[in-house]
Design goal:
homodimer; alpha+beta; Nucleoside Triphosphate Pyrophosphohydrolase; three-stranded antiparallel sheet; 5 helices; DNA-binding
Chain lengths: 225, 225
DNA sequence: ACAAAAGTGTTTTCTATACACCCATGG
DNA sequence: CCATGGGTGTATAGAAAACACTTTTGT
């Protein structure tokens, strides 16, 4: 009757984006179980820390990354999901601009790497399921919350935004209608800076105005694409 | 350094609906902490049971109810949310047809009662926050998932559905447009049965066709109101 | 001058909204 | 025959979708 207590862990699915590719941050496990296999970063929650603190700590410890946007995803609690015993994991979902950070392996990670989201390796535990849940959430939420900007550079040409949405939604977008819609939302500031991509006409840079977005949101104006 | 382990509990916000009122199922606590105060039903997760099983077990034990629709809501894990020590709670969100069950108090509940959702008593722990999260979720989800039918009788007159949505959305609905839209979704079967509400023309009964709904959903046709 | 990407308006179609009268029943 | 709730269609406005040419730069 004196069973081992249930343990609580956190895991984080971290998405990045670069040049038309959605990527996911994974670590190679240094210890058993699943030693040498890839997994999403995470670890046990300490007694006095909040779940968010635990995720941020584990991410920093294992990968050196500081997250840009973080939200709770889902709690996975099947009795047999971890061979070490009963471990319930609160999964989080994060977005970063990959080029903002250098990633490095530490603590129980042997290696850290960005993987293209459609060329993923075999994953440990039920991490495949967690990852699928996260991808669904990202795709579902991108159309009614301005998450996309968390994946782009602070200042970005309009074509980057367009390509990001094309990638995330998995279908083509009409450039003119898309631009009209986004501009109409009134949450982008057009800067007086241009950037050239080597060939073609240089593009104007834009910046997401978070303050204005929250203002409009409070007034009941909804973001929708 | 030998700290007490983190404990894991589940809690369930259960909504019912009757005659224009959204109600919430609460229990009066029999034991400390918060003895005599109202709380949402819940309890600790046992070592070998899944989270869903735990919720269903606790609901049955404490209130005698069997839930109709259940989904995970959010996991609440602030270090100080429970005075007994560190307790992380996975909150669920349930819908029932209240007239289907008799509720009764048992185990650590002194009393069980349906409360009108805008006449709620003071709640224990952080249950107010959990409840608010659940209400937001219900209101948000009702427009793009066919949750409403879980709250109505299996066979219902159209006016019941209309009143439910008026209540949930907190605004008037154009009867003709609403009917057109719902009928257009093609997920209701019109029965050859009528029901009279005492006065006025008897209403035809309808029934939600879950099979057809999932069929259409698979084909990418979305439910939206 | 040409290749390559950026920028821009108008027309058409569909969807959402507004709106009022007749119908079936019980008392 | 009247009170009560049930059932229905059409016209208008607004939003989404379709669609192609000009502009700016680098080579």
């Amino acid at each position: 009757m004196s069973k081992q207590a249930i343990k609580l862990s956190v895991d984080a699915v971290v998405f990045g984006y670069e040049e038309g590719n959605i990527s996911v941050l994974l670590i190679k496990r240094k210890f058993e179980p699943f030693k040498g296999q890839w997994a999403i970063p995470g670890g046990f929650v300490e007694h006095d820390e909040s779940l968010e603190t635990a995720v941020e700590r584990e991410l920093l410890e294992e990968t050196g990354i500081k997250i840009n946007y973080l939200e709770q995803l889902y709690t996975f609690g099947k009795p047999k999901r971890d061979p070490r015993g009963r471990v319930v994991s609160v999964a989080y979902f994060g977005l970063v601009r990959p080029n903002t950070f250098d990633i490095f392996a530490a603590t129980d990670a042997e290696q850290v790497q960005w993987f293209n989201s459609n060329e993923l390796p075999k994953l440990s535990f039920d991490h495949k399921e967690i990852l699928n849940t996260a991808i669904e959430r990202l795709q579902g939420k991108i159309t009614y919350e301005p998450l996309g900007f968390e994946l782009l550079d602070k200042k970005f040409p309009f074509s980057d935004l367009e390509k990001l949405y094309t990638t995330l939604l998995g279908r083509d977008i009409d450039r003119r209608n898309f631009r009209k819609k986004i501009i109409g939302l009134n949450v982008l500031d057009e800067l007086n800076e241009k950037v050239s991509k080597g060939s073609g006409r240089p593009a104007n840079l834009f910046q997401f105005n978070k303050k204005r977005y929250f203002q409009l949101k409070k007034e009941g104006i909804i973001f929708e694409i």
